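Anyone up for a design puzzle?
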């Protein structure tokens, strides 16, 4: 299983639009995506489930671990990492 650890910098954390973008991106790949909140010690949860991600309560500055398994695991991680590091393409 491939993984990456990132810090969420978006002002809303992993909530609302950023959460929707994360789920939309995760669903584009043939991979099982799991997300863990390292800051809160919660998870892992299904990265393609808005409700499960919301329950992690990830805020700005929190560290998350994204794990991916499956035929497109590396591609999924690359896309999700780019999304988080781009501040969910919103530039806040």
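Challenge accepted. My sequence:
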């Amino acid at each position: 299983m491939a993984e990456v650890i990132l810090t969420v910098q978006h002002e809303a954390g992993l909530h609302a639009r950023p959460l929707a973008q994360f789920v939309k991106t995760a669903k584009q790949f043939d991979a099982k995506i799991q997300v863990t909140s390292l800051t809160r010690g919660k998870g892992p949860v299904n990265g393609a489930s808005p409700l499960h991600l919301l329950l992690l309560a990830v805020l700005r500055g929190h560290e998350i671990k994204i794990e991916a398994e499956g035929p497109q695991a590396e591609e999924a991680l690359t896309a999700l990492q780019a999304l988080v590091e781009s501040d969910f393409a919103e530039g806040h």
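A detail worth pointing out: The CA atoms of residues 45 and 52 lie 6 Å apart.
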